[in-house]
Design goal:
Shape: elongated
Mean pLDDT: 85
Distance between the termini: 56 Å
Order of helices and strands: HHHHEEEEEEHHHHHH
Strand order of the largest sheet: 1-2-3-4-5-6
Number of strands: 6
Low-confidence stretches: 303-307, 368-382
Helix content: 55-70%
Radius of gyration: 31 Å
């Protein structure tokens, strides 16, 4: 049963982890979003599905290091405040005092597995659909002013001067060549995009249209119009269908079922193991980082309430660097082969074992302040 003191410490650690997670998660999410999408997409309607798709992956990757750092720094502060000494004096053992940190780390690991195995694959599908749309099927909100866009296998060109909102543009030029070679050149004061299921159409207003027959050398006929509607070749409301699905998009059972098939191809095997390391290896690092951090805090800071903030800062930086290198190695494993994936898995296991070993060694009963080791009296000579 958790004592009142342990419950108090658990609440403090949960709050510290929550605040730290907000401080880390939001900036990392924004940086990744900017790196994933082009500048034009950041102000379009695509930013929200991309944000929702990217958030679960960023969350479970950053959660372990945030919890490990929060636990480490909090216990360094507890030691500096003399709180640990008070708890030892009250009869709690060194291990019992640190149980709250393990409770928070285990909760973070469990939550991380839920996100990595269930929420992240669904989000990855949303993000991949957005990236695929940008690369293969432009949305009206992504085309930029004063640039010519060639669509429909080169038979359609669109350009405009100014964007008023995501669906309203001004100073529009449009050229359309029919399958028989006939050509239309349209100039309009403004236009509105109309999103349909599979393709966006454009409503052109107040302009003139020039018709030119195939092979003709004259200017053709010019007709003024108040409003006309034309297809654009730009994406509609529905995302284009991809013909492939990545391992990172598969649910827990489907992902495991792909193991045997993936091993037949070295490239797919590397991708499967890379994804497995991220899904199953990274969340448990919350516990590994916590054990390692608490062990070093206890060994370097002692238990006398004189913990050094410099030492705690060095420990936190070490955990941050270690986590960053492990995550980076997981990503590289998808292109560098199964050997690197096995090395990363071994490194994660080594951190867990070393952290546990150092933690157990550091959990020796604390010596009271001012206590000196007793001398064994020498035996009197015969």
């Amino acid at each position: 049963m958790i004592s009142t003191a342990q419950l108090y410490l658990t609440r403090r650690l949960l709050f510290a982890s929550f605040v730290a997670m907000l401080a880390v998660f939001v900036p990392v999410l924004m940086i990744q979003l900017i790196s994933q999408l082009p500048q034009s997409a950041l102000s379009s309607e695509l930013v929200w599905p991309a944000l929702i798709g990217l958030a679960p992956t960023i969350f479970y990757i950053t959660l372990p290091v945030v919890v490990g750092i929060a636990n480490t720094w909090a216990y360094s502060e507890f030691s500096a405040e003399g709180m640990l000494t008070i708890l030892y004096t009250a009869g709690l053992s060194v291990l019992n005092v640190r149980i709250p940190a393990f409770i928070v780390a285990i909760l973070a690991s469990v939550f991380g597995y839920v996100v990595s195995c269930e929420l992240s694959p669904r989000g990855a599908t949303k993000l991949e659909n957005v990236v695929y749309l940008i690369e293969n099927d432009l949305s009206p909100s992504l085309i930029e002013p004063q640039r010519f866009y060639t669509l429909n296998n080169g038979r359609r060109v669109i350009q405009y001067q100014e964007r008023m909102n995501k669906n309203w543009i001004k100073g529009v030029f449009m050229r359309d060549i029919a399958s028989n070679g006939d050509e239309e050149i349209i100039f309009a004061d403004d236009a509105i995009f109309e999103r349909r299921a599979d393709e966006s159409w454009i409503i052109l207003r107040k302009g003139h249209i020039q018709y030119r027959k195939a092979g003709s050398t004259d200017d053709g006929d010019t007709v003024a119009f108040t409003q006309i509607t034309r297809p654009t070749g730009l994406a509609g409301e529905n995302f284009p269908k991809r013909k492939w699905t990545g391992f990172f998009e598969l649910g827990f059972l489907d992902f495991l079922a792909q193991h045997a098939r993936a091993q037949g191809d070295p490239r797919q095997a590397s991708q499967w193991w890379s994804e497995a390391l991220e899904r199953f290896g990274i969340p448990i690092l919350a516990l590994a980082h916590t054990m390692l951090g608490l062990a070093f805090v206890n060994l370097w800071g002692g238990t006398t309430g004189r913990s050094s903030k410099f030492a705690a800062g060095m420990i936190v930086c070490g955990i941050l660097f270690l986590h960053f290198m492990l995550v980076l190695a997981c990503e590289f494993a998808s292109s560098q082969g199964v050997t690197l994936a096995r090395a990363v898995a071994a490194a994660m296991g080594a951190e867990m074992l070393i952290g546990a070993g150092l933690f157990l060694w550091a959990m020796r009963p604390p010596r009271a302040i001012g206590e000196r080791p007793r001398r064994v009296p020498a035996l009197a000579a015969d």
